[in-house]
C-alpha cells in the first residue's frame, strides 16, 4: 500500500494510477441545486481504487479518507462504525481523515443528509473489498481454500486451526493501487456488528478535555490576527478610507485591495484598535426592511390566480409567513491561512472544503492544485457554513502581510455577513368532501424554497409551486432547507381542514394518507403521546404533525401550557422517527432531539430583524436561541427498519415541531397561528 | 502581571483591560475556552476563578491577577477525567462540542455550591450557557450522574 498522499495535486496522482474504474457521484443534482455555496460546482468522479480511501499500516492502524466533514452530526463515529464492521476490527484501530483537500477524495460537500446514504456505503464498499483482498492474500500465502478463512478481531484467521495473521501483516503484501472497489461484499444491516450499536463519539475525550483544536483554535508560528473593515449596511460602496493612523501602529499591517480593507496585528486587541482607527466613508443604498418584507414578497411574487373551486363541501384558503432566521453556529466562521513556497493552506470550518478551495483559487487567482483546505471538526454549521468568505478574507490578508493570519468572525459579523434561512410566504388553497377526503390542493411558496413542497397526502387535483424571488437578505441553506416552512404551512392547513370537517386531526390525516412509513411514525407518536386520552382546555393544548423529506419520516406530538397574558410553554414533545436501518441509536436520538430543540427556536421566537440594510439584532443578547429553560420533556421512538437502506437524520427531524405547536395552540384557544415564529402572538412562560 | 492558571504561576506582560479569554487562548495556548459572543451571553468562554464560573470574554485580565484560574485543560486529574467529563461522554451530552468545556466548568461551579442539585436547579444555573446543537436534556442528565462522584471526591480532597 502506498504512503499516505501528501501531494497537493490529488487529481494528478489519481490519473497517474490509471486503469481503475470510475463511478459517477450519485448525488441528486436537483437537490444539490437548492444548496448554497460559491466556487466551482463541477462534479468530480470518485476514485475507485481502495488505496485512495483506506490505508492499513503494518502495525494494524487503519486510516480512512473521506471528503465529508464533522460538524457535530457524529459522522466521524458512524463512518468509523461502517469501516470497523467491514474490516471486522475494533473502531479504536481506525482513524478517519476528513475534509482535507490534499488527502481525501473530492467531495461536493457535507449537506443534504447525504453522508449516511452515500458515503457510508462507499466506505463499506472499499473496506469490504479490502477485507476480501486480505482473505485472498492469506489463502495464497498459506495455500489454503479461502472458504476456510475469515476476518475477525483485526486478523484473518483459519476457522479450522489457530493460524492467523494481522491485517497489518497481510496488507503490506498487496498492491492496493490495483484493487478496485467491489459492490458485492458489503455487510447488510442485519449482519452489522459495530454499526447498529451506540458507539460513543470517537473523539469525545478530546472534546471534554478541551484538547480538540477547532479551526479557531489553530495557531501557527509568527501568526497575525486579522480584522476586516465592514460596510455600515448591505450594498454600501466605499467612497474613501484613511488608513494612515492604523498603519502607524507598531505591530500592525493594513491590507488593502480595492474595497477590501483589513488589518493584521500581533494580537487581537491591537487588530481591533487598528480597525477602529480607520476612517472610511461609504455611500449607502436603499434596502428592504423587515416591516416591508411581506409587501415586498407580495409585489414581487407573481401571485398565481386561484384555480376555480370544484364545489366540494369545504374550501379553505390560508397564508403562512416564515421569518428569516440565523444558523448561529456557536463557533463563528474562522480561518487560519498560510502561504508557503507558492502554496496556500487554509484551516477553516466549512461544509464544503473542496468548494472553498475553488473559492480561494478564484479569489487569489491561483491554481487549485496550489491550494489546500483542511477542515478540523467544527463548532457546528446546520447548513450555514457552505461558503468560504472568512477563508478568502484570511488568505487575502495573509498574502498582503506575508505572514500566516487567523481571522475569527465576531458574533456580529456572523449574524450580519453570513447568510440566512430565507423568509417566505406560503399560500394554500384546498377543498375537501363532506367525509373529509381531500379533493384539491394548491400550494405556493414565495421566496422561502421548494424543498419538501410535495404533499405526502393523496389528492387527485394538486398544484405545488415554488416562486423564486430575489431575497432582500443574503439567503442560503439551513438544516432541512424550506421543508420546515413548507411542512409548517401544510400541516397547519391540514389541521384547519380537519377542524372544518369536524374530524380528529389524526383520523383526518390517516384518512388521506397511504404512505405506510409516514402512517407508521404518525400512529406510533400519537400512541405514545396518549393522543386519544388528551383533554384540551383553555390552559392546555395538544397538537400533532407529520412529514417526510430526504428519506426520513417524522411523526410529532406536542403538549403546551398556556398562562395568563398569552403565556406559552411547550411542556412535552413526543417524536417518532424512521430513516431505514439505524446506524447508531444514541447518536440518532441525539440528532433528533437536537433538531427538535433547534426547531423550537424557529417555531417560537427566532427572527432576524433588519432595516436600512442593517441587522438590528446581531448579538446573542438580542437574538434569542433556545436555552435550558425552553426545552420540553422529549420522548423519542426510533423505528429501526433493517430492510431499508439508512437515510440521513441531521435535518428532517426538525420539520415536525413548529406545526405541532401551532396546532396545539389552536386546540386550546381556537386561534390559528400562521406565522413562524409564533411569538410575539404569545410570550414564553 | 502574575496569573495562576491551572495551578501554575504565569507571568505575562499585557494590557490589564484585555479580556482574559484572549490572554488564555492567544498567549497561553489554552484554547479550551471558546469565543462565542464576546458579551457574556453564551458561556462558551467560561472558566473558574477561585472555583466560581466567570465569562472570560468580559473579564479584564487585570482583575484576576493572583487569583486561581482553572480552564478545562486543568480540570482533570492528570490523565484521569473529571467525573463531569466522563458523564458528558457517557450521556453523549454533546454534538459539535464547542460549548462543552464551558458547560462542564459551569456545572463544576454549580456542584461546588450545591452538591446534589435538582433538575430545575441545574437548568437555572446553566441558563446562561448555549448549546446550539440542543443537547440540553443530556447535559442535565450528565450533571445529575456526575454529582455523587464529584461530591465523593470533594470529601476525599476538600481543597481540590
Q: How would you portray this structure in words?
A:
The complex is a heterodimer of chains A (685) and B (160). Chain A is of the alpha/beta class and 685 residues long. Chain A has 3 domains: 10-208, Aldehyde Oxidoreductase, domain 4; 215-284 and 333-408, Aldehyde oxidase/xanthine dehydrogenase, molybdopterin binding domain (Aldehyde Oxidoreductase, domain 4, 2-Layer Sandwich); 424-684, Aldehyde oxidase/xanthine dehydrogenase, molybdopterin binding domain (Aldehyde Oxidoreductase, domain 4, 2-Layer Sandwich). Chain A has a 7-stranded mixed sheet, sandwiched between helices. In chain A, strands 19-18-17-12-26 form a 5-stranded mixed sheet, with helices on both faces. In chain A, helix 13 (483-500) packs across helix 14. Chain A starts with 9 loop residues before the first helix and ends with a strand. Chain B has 160 residues and is of the alpha+beta class. Chain B has 2 domains: 2-74, Roll (Ubiquitin-like (UB roll)); 83-156, Orthogonal Bundle (DNA polymerase, domain 1). Chain B is built from 5 helices and 5 strands, in the order E-E-H-E-E-E-H-H-H-H. Chain B has helices at residues 20-27, 83-90, 100-113, 119-125, 136-156; strands at residues 2-5, 8-11, 46-49, 52-55, 68-70. Chain B has a 5-stranded mixed sheet with strand order 2-1-5-3-4, with helices on one face. In chain B, strand 3 and strand 4 (52-55) form a beta hairpin. In chain B, helix 2 runs antiparallel to helix 5 (136-156) and helix 3 packs across helix 5 (136-156). The model of chain B has no long low-confidence stretch (mean pLDDT 96). The chains are: A alpha/beta (685), B alpha+beta (160). Chains A and B meet through helix 6 and helix 16 of A and helix 1, helix 2, helix 3, helix 4 and helix 5 of B.
Amino acid at each position: 500500500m502506498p504512503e499516505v498522499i501528501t501531494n497537493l495535486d490529488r487529481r494528478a496522482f489519481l490519473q497517474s494510477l490509471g486503469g481503475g474504474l470510475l463511478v459517477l457521484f450519485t448525488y441528486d443534482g436537483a437537490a444539490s441545486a437548492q444548496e448554497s455555496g460559491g466556487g466551482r460546482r463541477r462534479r468530480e468522479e470518485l476514485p475507485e481504487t481502495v488505496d485512495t480511501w483506506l490505508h492499513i499500516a503494518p502495525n494494524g492502524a487503519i486510516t480512512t479518507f473521506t471528503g465529508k466533514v464533522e460538524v457535530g452530526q457524529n459522522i466521524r463515529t458512524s463512518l468509523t462504525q461502517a469501516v470497523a464492521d467491514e474490516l471486522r476490527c475494533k473502531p479504536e484501530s481506525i482513524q478517519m481523515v476528513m475534509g482535507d483537500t490534499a488527502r481525501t477524495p473530492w467531495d461536493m460537500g457535507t449537506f443534504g443528509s447525504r453522508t449516511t446514504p452515500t458515503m457510508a456505503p462507499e466506505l463499506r464498499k472499499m473496506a469490504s473489498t479490502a477485507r476480501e483482498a486480505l482473505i485472498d492474500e492469506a489463502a495464497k500465502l498459506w495455500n489454503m481454500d479461502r472458504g476456510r478463512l475469515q476476518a475477525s478481531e483485526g486478523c484473518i484467521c483459519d476457522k479450522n486451526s489457530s493460524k492467523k495473521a494481522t491485517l497489518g501483516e497481510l496488507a503490506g503484501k498487496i498492491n492496493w493501487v490495483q484493487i478496485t472497489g467491489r459492490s458485492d461484499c458489503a455487510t447488510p444491516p442485519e449482519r452489522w456488528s459495530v454499526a447498529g450499536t451506540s458507539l460513543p463519539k470517537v473523539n469525545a475525550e478530546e472534546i471534554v478535555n478541551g484538547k480538540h483544536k477547532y479551526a479557531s483554535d489553530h495557531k501557527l508560528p509568527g501568526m497575525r490576527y486579522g480584522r476586516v473593515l465592514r460596510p455600515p449596511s448591505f450594498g454600501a460602496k466605499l467612497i474613501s478610507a484613511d488608513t494612515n493612523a492604523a498603519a502607524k501602529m507598531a505591530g500592525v499591517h493594513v491590507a488593502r485591495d480595492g474595497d477590501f480593507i483589513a488589518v493584521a496585528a500581533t494580537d487581537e486587541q491591537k487588530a481591533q484598535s487598528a480597525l477602529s482607527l480607520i476612517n472610511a466613508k461609504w455611500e449607502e443604498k436603499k434596502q428592504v426592511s423587515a416591516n416591508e418584507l411581506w409587501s415586498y414578497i407580495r409585489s414581487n411574487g407573481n401571485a398565481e390566480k386561484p384555480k376555480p373551486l370544484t364545489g366540494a363541501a369545504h374550501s379553505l384558503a390560508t397564508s403562512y409567513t416564515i421569518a428569516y432566521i440565523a444558523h448561529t453556529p456557536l463557533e463563528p466562521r474562522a480561518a487560519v491561512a498560510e502561504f508557503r513556497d507558492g502554496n496556500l493552506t487554509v484551516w477553516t470550518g466549512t461544509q464544503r472544503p473542496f468548494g472553498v478551495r475553488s473559492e480561494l483559487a478564484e479569489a487569489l487567482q491561483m491554481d487549485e492544485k496550489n491550494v489546500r483546505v483542511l477542515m478540523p471538526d467544527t463548532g457546528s454549521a446546520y447548513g450555514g457554513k457552505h461558503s468560504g468568505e472568512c477563508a478568502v478574507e484570511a488568505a487575502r490578508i495573509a498574502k498582503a502581510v506575508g505572514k500566516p493570519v487567523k481571522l475569527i468572525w465576531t458574533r456580529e459579523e456572523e449574524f450580519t455577513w453570513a447568510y440566512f434561512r430565507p423568509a417566505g410566504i406560503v399560500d394554500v388553497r384546498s377543498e375537501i368532501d363532506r367525509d373529509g377526503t381531500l379533493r384539491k390542493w394548491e400550494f405556493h411558496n414565495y421566496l422561502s424554497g421548494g424543498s419538501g413542497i410535495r404533499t405526502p397526502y393523496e389528492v387527485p387535483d394538486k398544484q405545488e409551486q415554488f416562486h423564486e424571488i430575489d431575497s432582500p437578505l443574503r439567503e442560503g441553506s439551513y438544516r432541512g432547507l424550506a421543508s420546515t416552512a413548507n411542512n409548517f404551512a401544510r400541516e397547519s392547513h391540514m389541521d384547519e381542514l380537519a377542524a372544518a370537517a369536524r374530524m380528529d386531526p389524526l383520523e383526518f390525516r390517516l384518512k388521506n394518507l397511504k404512505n405506510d412509513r409516514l402512517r407508521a411514525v404518525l400512529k406510533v407518536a400519537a400512541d405514545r403521546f396518549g393522543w386519544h386520552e388528551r383533554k384540551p382546555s383553555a390552559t392546555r393544548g395538544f397538537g400533532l404533525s407529520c412529514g417526510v423529506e430526504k428519506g426520513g419520516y417524522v411523526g410529532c406530538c406536542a403538549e403546551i401550557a398556556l398562562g395568563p397574558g398569552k403565556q406559552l410553554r411547550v411542556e412535552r414533545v413526543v417524536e417518532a422517527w424512521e430513516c431505514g436501518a439505524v446506524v447508531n441509536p444514541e447518536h440518532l436520538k441525539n440528532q433528533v432531539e437536537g433538531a427538535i430543540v433547534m426547531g423550537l427556536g424557529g417555531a417560537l421566537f427566532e427572527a432576524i430583524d433588519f432595516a436600512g440594510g442593517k441587522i438590528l439584532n446581531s448579538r446573542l443578547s438580542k437574538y434569542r436561541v433556545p436555552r435550558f429553560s425552553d426545552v420540553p420533556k422529549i420522548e423519542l421512538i426510533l423505528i429501526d427498519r433493517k430492510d431499508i437502506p439508512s437515510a440521513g437524520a441531521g435535518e428532517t427531524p426538525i420539520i415536525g415541531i413548529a406545526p405541532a405547536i401551532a396546532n396545539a395552540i389552536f386546540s386550546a384557544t381556537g386561534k390559528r397561528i400562521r406565522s413562524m415564529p409564533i411569538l410575539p402572538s404569545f410570550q414564553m412562560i | 502581571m502574575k496569573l495562576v492558571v491551572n495551578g501554575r504561576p504565569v507571568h505575562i506582560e499585557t494590557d490589564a483591560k484585555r479580556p482574559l479569554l484572549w490572554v488564555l487562548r492567544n498567549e497561553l495556548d489554552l484554547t479550551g475556552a471558546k469565543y462565542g459572543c464576546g458579551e457574556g451571553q453564551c458561556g462558551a468562554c467560561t472558566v473558574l476563578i477561585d472555583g466560581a464560573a466567570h465569562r472570560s470574554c468580559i473579564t479584564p485580565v487585570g482583575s484576576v491577577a493572583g487569583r486561581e484560574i482553572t480552564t478545562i485543560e486543568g480540570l482533570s486529574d492528570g490523565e484521569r477525567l473529571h467525573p463531569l467529563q466522563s458523564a458528558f461522554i457517557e450521556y453523549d451530552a454533546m454534538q459539535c462540542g464547542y460549548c462543552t468545556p464551558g458547560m462542564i466548568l459551569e456545572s463544576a461551579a454549580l456542584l461546588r455550591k450545591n452538591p446534589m442539585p435538582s433538575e430545575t436547579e441545574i437548568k437555572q444555573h446553566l441558563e446562561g450557557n448555549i448549546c446550539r446543537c440542543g443537547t440540553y436534556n443530556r447535559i442535565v442528565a450528565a450533571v445529575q450522574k456526575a454529582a455523587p462522584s464529584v461530591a465523593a471526591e470533594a470529601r476525599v480532597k476538600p481543597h481540590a
